[in-house]
């Protein structure tokens, strides 16, 4: 049937505009780049598809980048930028952020900002959010609304904010409480954990489980002791497919991270796990809603002082110019 991609995204934008009304001033909007960069979505789409053909793991990489960027202080690509003394990726919370997925964001920036394309009109933040949506849509998950016209931060986020990222060893109550500080409810927490359907973790992310005596935990430990650098699939049945198998696995006692298992310990989170296990369509629809919520986490800092990084997503313009002077 002949719905073009642009028309579908247009409808999504319209629905989103009703759900999240935004002032029609110079601030962010869903159609921010429609006139200044009409080919933006196509360029992002083509680059992401090409990258996923080489390495499907880029999709999980982008999802993790967006979450780890947006959670601490709103979406502002602060995760990518080199600070004067350190970068956000220097801290243990951001261990395992994929360099290839970060590089893809800057590769797309260079294409988009080429003078023959759109020039320096689109931020690294917008590209990160659009590229992540393309990666999700690659798996036939419906699209969702992403506000555009966001600015890039001048520096990494405050350390205190980075330490607020939820770790893999939190209890259900701690997990829910941590997400609630950013306006996420129980459904958001359970559905965003569903991104683990294509996720991987290093062994250090679940070593707290190695004393357990279940056969599944013993196998996890055995696999890690034979290869300490192993990247463990978080969805042990269909690791490269974005589907609701992650929830089936949880219910079958095959959850990998402590934070995954915790979703079964609280009856409200467990209720959502059951729903998403029974109904993949519900999982997909809620996933889009929660991703859109994440894209809407505003960075007041970048909105006020931010810029469009126009030399590299890894350097603020000022620092790039002084470093290369
Ligand atoms: C452990 O490794 C084996 C061999 O690679 C694999 O078949 C099995 O699925 C792994 N177990 C888990 C829990 O990932
Ligand atoms: C589960 O989480 C909900 C929502 O945070 C909370 O109200 C409830 O008390 C928790 N239940 C248990 C058994 O921990
Ligand atoms: C990049 O932006 C800075 C302002 O942040 C500006 O001075 C510079 O001319 C821009 N460079 C390009 C190539 O657009």
From TrEMBL:
One of its GO terms (biological process) is hydrogen peroxide catabolic process. Substrate binds at residue 166. Residues 27-309 form the Plant heme peroxidase family profile domain. The keyword Signal applies. Disulfide bonds join 37-118, 70-75, 203-224. Involved in defense response to powdery meldew fungus. Ca(2+) 1 binds at residues 69, 74, 76, 78, 88. It catalyses: 2 a phenolic donor + H2O2 = 2 a phenolic radical donor + 2 H2O. Ca(2+) 2 binds at residues 197, 235, 238, 243. It comes from Lolium multiflorum (Italian ryegrass). One of its GO terms (molecular function) is lactoperoxidase activity. This is Peroxidase. PANTHER family: PEROXIDASE 55, PTHR31517. Residues 1-17 form the signal peptide.
């Amino acid at each position: 049937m002949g719905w073009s991609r642009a028309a579908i995204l247009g409808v999504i934008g319209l629905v989103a505009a009703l759900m999240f009304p935004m002032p029609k001033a110079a601030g962010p909007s869903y159609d921010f780049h429609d006139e200044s960069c009409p080919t933006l979505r196509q360029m992002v789409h083509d680059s992401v598809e090409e990258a996923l053909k080489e390495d499907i793991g880029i999709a999980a990489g982008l999802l993790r980048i967006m979450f780890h960027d947006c959670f601490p202080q709103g979406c502002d690509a602060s995760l990518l930028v080199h600070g004067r003394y350190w970068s956000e990726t220097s801290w243990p919370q951001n261990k395992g952020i994929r360099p290839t997925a970060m590089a893809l964001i800057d590769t797309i920036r260079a294409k988009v900002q080429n003078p023959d394309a759109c020039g320096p009109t689109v931020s690294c933040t917008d590209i990160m959010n659009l590229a992540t949506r393309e990666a999700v849509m690659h798996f036939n998950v419906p699209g969702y609304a992403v506000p555009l016209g966001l600015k890039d931060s001048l520096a990494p986020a405050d350390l205190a904010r980075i330490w607020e990222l939820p770790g893999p060893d939190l209890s259900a109550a701690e997990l829910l409480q941590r997400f609630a500080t950013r306006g996420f409810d129980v459904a958001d927490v359970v559905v965003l954990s569903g991104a683990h359907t294509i996720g991987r973790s290093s062994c250090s992310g679940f070593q707290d489980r190695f004393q357990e005596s279940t056969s599944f935990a013993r196998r996890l430990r055995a696999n890690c002791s034979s290869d300490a650098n192993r990247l463990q699939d978080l969805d042990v049945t269909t690791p490269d497919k974005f589907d609701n198998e992650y929830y089936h696995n949880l219910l079958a006692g095959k959850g990998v991270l402590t934070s995954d298992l915790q979703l079964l310990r609280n009856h409200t989170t467990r209720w959502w796990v059951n729903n998403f296990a029974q109904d993949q369509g519900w999982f997909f629809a809620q996933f889009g809603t929660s991703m859109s919520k994440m894209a809407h986490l505003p960075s007041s800092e970048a909105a006020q002082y931010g810029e469009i990084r126009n030399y590299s997503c890894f350097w603020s313009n000022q620092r790039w110019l002084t470093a290369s002077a």
